[in-house]
Specification:
GO terms for molecular function: hydroxymethylglutaryl-CoA reductase (NADH) activity. Pfam families: HMG-CoA_red. Its EC number is 1.1.1.88. Belongs to the HMG-CoA reductase family. The protein is 48% helix and 20% strand. The protein is α+β, with helices and mostly antiparallel strands. It folds into four domains: 1-46, no CATH class; 49-96 and 203-352, 3-hydroxy-3-methylglutaryl-coenzyme A Reductase, Chain A, domain 2, CATH 3.90.770; 99-197, Alpha-Beta Plaits, CATH 3.30.70; 358-408, Orthogonal Bundle (Helicase, Ruva Protein, domain 3), CATH 1.10.8. The chain is globular. The structure holds (R)-mevalonate. (R)-mevalonate (MEV) is lined by residues 70, 241-242, 244-245, 248, 346-347, 350, 355.
Length: 409
């Protein structure tokens, strides 16, 4: 008998013993591309995609695809970007390298012995790395550095640094690591594992913006944004929420571009804790003359514009086209600028009249759908909910019921 993973998507749905409508629903949402992508595939889970219009980064305007389920995220990004455009938009001040780290983890070895071994075998290490990924080396990418790090008395790491070029390079890195590992055959017993690191120490990118205070509602409003921003530096609980708001935008673009949002977020959160305390990834402060509100975001980004899931996801390829086929460096700047745009909109709302009014307006359409509204009814119910200032499902059901009654009479 075939194992579940060996079945076709249709056979899997049969095996799951689902009702006909359930089977039909899952089948309707299948796609050929996705069938090859993961194990035990049954269907595609779709998420909405919206556009952030005219994000200005380093003097260039981008139309930015965002994939998210949260109603207010695209609106917040557009709001933040249009405020930044009242200045000169966003500017990249640190590009970061397209390098990925990898670790071979040793237990029960002395760091000095390991360092001596690496020094003696360095040519062989580079040769194995080259043989594992010759195409990378031909493009001028590949292994750049090998370094031994002592963790404690009993543990040490051989760190590899690989230039991944236009790709994120996770697979390439792991292939190289496994090839290089074979050089250490006399240490075989001590190797606990070999895997890339998502930390991205050398891939830190910085994006800044300088917004006229008038664009955020004047000096008082700008001062409140500055004050709120300091809470993200001193209260880890506030920092978590602020970074969540940053990732609302950033991860939505990471996702739209077919990149690995878990890797980006893990690196971001680790970077946010680099001082020993978890802090916001952004800082906002008034300029000395109090004319501008200056914002800055900084974090590692290991992403790519080709390879990995991008090669298998037509939507990701089209989204990169929508972005104007950016270079890796450009995409990094766009990602951080979007995160900072969302952050600005959130800080402005939270330190101003709160987020609920804007959020609930966006939520009204979702609630209308939950109440059973379809087609034109959705906006009509949402408008009524906003008008009545009662944005909840019960009210939506009442409004919908009344509407249907009216049409029947
Ligand atoms: C909501 O999804 C995100 C915010 O909570 C972010 C923040 O508080 O900075 C508004």
């Amino acid at each position: 008998m075939k194992k579940f993973y060996q079945l076709t998507a249709e056979e899997r749905l049969e095996t799951l013993d689902l009702s006909e409508p359930m089977k039909a629903f899952f089948t309707r949402h299948q796609s050929e591309e996705s069938k090859q992508l993961i194990e035990n595939y049954i269907s595609d889970y779709r998420l909405p995609e919206g556009v952030l219009r005219n994000l200005q980064v380093d003097g260039k305007l981008y139309q930015v695809p965002m994939v998210t389920e949260e109603p207010s995220v695209v609106a917040a990004a557009n709001n933040g970007a249009s405020i930044a455009n009242k200045g000169n938009g966003f500017k990249t001040t640190q590009v970061g390298e397209a390098v990925l780290g990898g670790q071979i983890l040793f237990e029960g070895v002395h760091q000095k012995d390991l360092a001596d071994f690496v020094a003696e075998h360095v040519d062989e290490i580079f040769q194995r790395a080259k043989d594992a990924k010759p195409s990378m080396v031909e493009r001028g990418d590949g292994l750049e550095a090998v370094q031994v790090e002592e963790l404690d008395q009993n543990r040490a790491v051989v760190n590899l640094t690989v230039n991944t070029g236009k790709a994120m390079g996770a697979n390439a890195m792991n292939t190289i690591l496994e090839a290089v590992k074979t050089v250490f055959s006399s240490y075989e017993k001590e190797i606990v594992g070999a895997i890339l690191s998502n930390a991205g120490h050398d891939a830190v990118v910085t994006v800044e913006t300088s917004v006229p205070v008038s664009a955020v509602g004047g000096l008082e409003a700008a001062k409140k944004i500055e004050s709120l921003s300091t809470f993200g530096q001193v209260s880890p609980d506030r920092a978590v929420t602020e970074n969540k708001g940053i990732f609302n935008g950033l991860a939505a673009v990471v996702m739209a571009s077919g990149n690995d949002y878990r890797a980006v977020e893990a690196a971001g959160h680790a970077f946010a804790s680099r001082s020993g305390q978890y802090r916001s990834l952004s800082r906002w402060s008034l300029s000395e003359d109090a004319e501008f509100l200056n914002g800055k975001i900084e974090m590692p980004l290991n992403i790519g514009v080709l390879g990995g899931a991008i090669a298998a996801l037509p939507m990701a390829q089209k989204n990169l086209e929508l972005l104007g086929n950016p270079s890796v460096e450009e995409l990094k700047s766009v990602l951080l600028a979007t995160g900072l745009a969302n952050n600005l909109a959130a800080l402005k709302a939270v330190s101003g009249r709160g987020i609920q009014s804007g959020h609930m307006k966006m939520q009204a359409r979702t609630i209308a759908v939950q109440a059973g509204a379809t087609g034109d009814e959705i906006q009509a119910v949402a408008d009524q909910l906003i008008y009545r200032k009662h944005i909840d499902q019960k009210t939506a059901e009442e409004i919908l019921g009344a509407m249907k009654n009216d049409t029947q009479n």
